[in-house]
Amino acid sequence: MSLVCKLHEAEQPLPDIIASHQLCFSGLYKQCKKSPDSFVNFQFQWYQYCSAFLLSSQYALSEINLTDPDAYQISEARTLWLGFCEENGSPVPESNPIMMTISSAIYHCLLDHVSTFQSGSLENTNPTVQEGDDVYYRFGGAAISDMLHLRYKQIKACRDDQRDILSQEISLLHCINSKDKTNIPQYLSYRDRGYMYFPDAAFLPFIRELDTLVTEIVNLDGLKQEGENLIKVAHDKVKSQEKLVHVFREALATRSLNVEATYSDEAIQNVYSTFTRKICNTRIQEFLSATKQHFATKKGLASTVDVNLRTTLLAYHAKLESNLGLND
């Protein structure tokens, strides 16, 4: 019987190992949250702690400079793991990768729990926020950042007749952006040092509806059917949905009084079109990146460097049953 099966069937030490990881995670999370680069610092500290499982049994945690109180929890988990390996006659060097995999799984589960807990608490205070909306905060924030950066650059050298429109567009983007970050998922706010952009929760229904439209086309079935025309078809579908414009304007109205009197139709349309296109492109890019990785994996490549997506899409569209294997 393999060591993993024995660990699964045994009453101990897995529950205690998980508990030790949880206490260590909680301590590090609270400690690193106060630092400027909180999330980066937290990740660094966590992986330094978990590297203890790579040490040979004769080494102490002090060998990798782990002497603070939270290190005790990992030390306990390591002691339990080493004892379990010894009892089952499993060499520690060969068994340590198993423990590293377990540590990684616990880490991701705890991080997901933090994000889910934060999102769950927000749903009670803001009905527009739903489970899974964290991706829309990312998409919307990236679009706002890019659009503001470009317009601030353009307004410095634009003609006088363009300045008013650009000023209105900048003001509109600040309406879309939310200064109140209480609705932001915990794992995103953890990365924020005060200058990240996030869409106001009022715009989440709009972004959600837009993304739903895009994903109806941008998927494996759409790729098989449309081939290299996939991107154009997705954008055309979004442009044909007049309802989206109304949803966008309704969201805008909740953020700014007298929208129609304050902003020109041209400014609103410019912001709507660009904002929509950028979110659409972000979703498409995520799908294409995943597809490239899929192709690379099928070809036995470690990365997507040598994968030309356009060529691959054309080849796939011409021969759906090729050895690229999207049907798998």
- Tell me the radius of gyration: 25 Å
**Inertia-based shape:** elongated
Number of DSSP helical runs: 15
Percent of residues in β-strands = under 5%
Query: How much helix is in the residues?
Result: 55-70%
Q: Which class of secondary structure composition applies to the elements? A: mainly alpha
Number of strands: 0
* Count of structural domains: 2
Q: First CA to last CA: what distance? A: 31 Å
Mean of pLDDT: 76
Order of helices and strands: HHHHHHHHHHHHHHH
Name the poorly predicted regions.
Answer: 118-125, 316-328
Q: Report the major sheet.
A: none
Q: How would you describe the overall organization of this protein?
A:
- The protein is elongated.
- Helix 2 packs antiparallel against helix 4.
- Mean pLDDT is 76; it is low at 118-125 and 316-328.
- Helix content is 68%, strand content 0%.
- The protein has helices at residues 3-9, 14-32, 38-50, 71-87, 92-123, 134-155, 160-176, 186-189, 204-217, 220-226, 230-239, 242-255, 259-262, 265-298, 309-318.
